Structures are given as C-alpha cells and as structure tokens.
Amino acid sequence: MCDTCGCNVTHGNRHLLAPGGRLEKTGQGSEAVTVLRNLLSENDRSAAHNRTHFDRHGVFAINLMSSPGAGKTALLEATIDALGERCRIAVIEGDLETENDAQRIRARGVPAVQITTGSACHLDAHMVHDALHQLELDGIDILFIENVGNLVCPASFDLGQHRNVTLLSVPEGDDKPAKYPVMFRAADAVALTKVDLLPVLGDFSTESARDHMRALASAAPVLELSVRADDGISAWLEWLAAELEHYREHTRRGETLRPRIQPEGLRLHGLKA
To answer: What is the pLDDT of residues 51-60, one digit of tens each?
Structure first.
C-alpha cells in the first residue's frame, strides 16, 4: 500500500497516530493526521483543476476501476474497435510498473499515456494532471482513465473525471459489491465482465450481483458483457453515447458533471476529521 494517501493506516496501527502515539508527529513536527488531510485536500484542488481543463476542451473523462484482471484493458480495446472513427478516444493507463497496457492501446492507433505509480495503489489527480500534458485535448471526445487494479483506494480519490465505471468479472464472485461497498457505491455504471464463463463458473449469479448493488441503494445500471464472445458490447456503447451527450448538454449550459460519489478521503480511510 502507498505512503502518500493514508491507506497504510489500519486498525492495527492507528493507535500510533493517536495523541501520545509514537508516530503522532512527523519528522518535521507536524501532526500526521493533519498531513494526510492536507494531502487529500490538495488532491481535491488538483481534481477540480483537471475537471475545468476537461470541460474547457469538451473532453468527457471516465475513470475505469476494478480488481486486477477484471478486463479493463480488454474492454477498452473492444470499445476502440467498435467505435472506430466515430469517436476520438484517448487513454491514461495506471499500473505499478510496465507499459504493457498502454502499448496494447497504442497498437490500435489511439494515444495512450502510461503512469507507473511504483508502490502507490491508485492514481491521484496530480498524476493525471501531469499525464494530460502529453495529450492533445482538443482532439479527444472521450478520455478513459484506467486506474490501478484495486477495489479499495481508487474510489477515494477524485481525478477530475465525470463518470466512474466499475468492472466486476465473473471469476471474482457475485458478492464483491457487498464486500467492497465504497467502490461500488462510487460507480455510475457497473460492467459485469467475462459473462461467457457463467456456464463454467455456475456459482456466480448475475441476479445476486444486482441484488448486492441494490442493497447499497445504488441505481447504477449493471451491464452484462463478454469481450471474448462479443456479447453485450452494444449496451455498453449505448450507455457511453447517452452519457457523452448528457455531458455535452451540461457543458453547453456552462455546467459540468461529477461522478456519483467522491466522498471525503479521510472518512473513507477511517480517519476522523
């Protein structure tokens, strides 16, 4: 876990940051919790700057989140292939190491910027801001930000995006929304991926997955799809087209869109303000 956002604070070590705890103060004498609060506040400020930048150039930004291996890059490849020249796409890829995913996207003729986070388990707004300098925003309709594979921390950090999409693959099990509620509450849409494996993995119930989403009081659409079987992609493309038009309507009125939830990072990390 990373040392920059507070996600390394656990029930087991939180007492070290409490008043009188051995790590209450940083090496410079600041209160540790105050440092974390300031980091999250600065992230929100940078995210607002990114969103203004997107809106100025008419770029609809989507944050893709999931556990590792759920199929984010494969979904992007299928989306690029299906849309062709009808929509100008760019991608920011987030991984701890390698340019593997960015290379897959570039192979389809789409600009992609790879962010390697080292030990950080999520992207933040500052990383995205730096990546934007490598893209020609005036030539982009939709920017996909593929976050680091992780069902916890990415949901806590606003990147400046307009929509969050969370992927849940069949091999992971249908109870992930119940186990990781913060991530799935933050979703504006949920893609159930690899549904071609349902006949093989009979213990996954799409209805149970939907029930777990409804139990979170989420009205986010749940889209069933399989990139390998070319199944359900049309529903995903329809959702994209509708959300892009919705975004454009807002920008024509001088307004913006925000994702369903971007709660205060301190609360999501279990720290009291």
So the answer is: 999 999 999 9
Query: Whole-prediction pTM value?
Result: 0.88
Cα dihedral sign, 236-238-244-246: negative
Phi-psi region of 191 (alpha: psi -120 to 50; beta: other; left: phi over 0): beta
User: Cα(first)–Cα(last) distance of the chain, in Å?
Assistant: 22
pLDDT tens digits along 1-29? 455 566 655 555 556 557 777 656 666 66
Measured distance CA(64)–CA(150) in Å, rounded: 11
CA distance 13 to 9: 6
Are the beta carbons of 191 and 236 closer than 8 angstroms?
yes
Q: What are phi and psi of 161, to 5 degrees?
A: -70, 165
Question: On the CB side of 237, how many CA atoms lie within 13 Å of its CA?
Answer: 16
Could you read off the pLDDT of 130-174 as tens digits, one per residue? 999 999 999 999 999 999 999 998 998 899 999 999 999 999 999
- In whole angstroms, how large is the CA radius of gyration of the chain? 19
Residue 258 CB neighbour total at 10 angstroms: 16
Q: Structural domains in the chain?
A: 58-262 (3.40.50.300)
CA distance 189 to 7: 25
